[in-house]
Design brief:
The protein is mainly alpha-helical. α1 crosses α3. It has helices spanning about 5-20, 40-55, 70-85.
């Protein structure tokens, strides 16, 4: 899966699971998830579970921060970086 595909897949997941479809499609790749109240601790845990189950990527709790979870694009970058790091271990 490339970066664009992952970004779109994560965008769809967040829209479906946390915004009940986001019919107006207000959420974009760079929308501030924490500032808009879309992500909180519970939803972050749900998102990380989805990433682990769907993509086989475990995100270390040490990587869960406002900086790494500020928007969909940043999260996708983290997932790809963690996936690449895991393949080199």
């Amino acid at each position: 899966m490339n970066t664009e595909e992952l970004e779109q897949a994560l965008l769809r997941y967040v829209r479906t699971e946390f915004l009940f479809g986001d019919e107006d499609e207000e959420l974009e790749l760079t929308s501030p998830l924490l500032e808009w109240g879309i992500l909180d601790s519970l939803r972050t845990a749900l998102l990380m579970t989805h990433v682990r189950e769907e993509y086989g990527v475990h995100i270390s709790p040490a990587k869960i921060s406002a900086r790494n979870f500020r928007d969909i694009r940043t999260i996708a970058g983290l997932v790809l970086a963690e996936s690449a790091a895991a393949s080199h271990r």
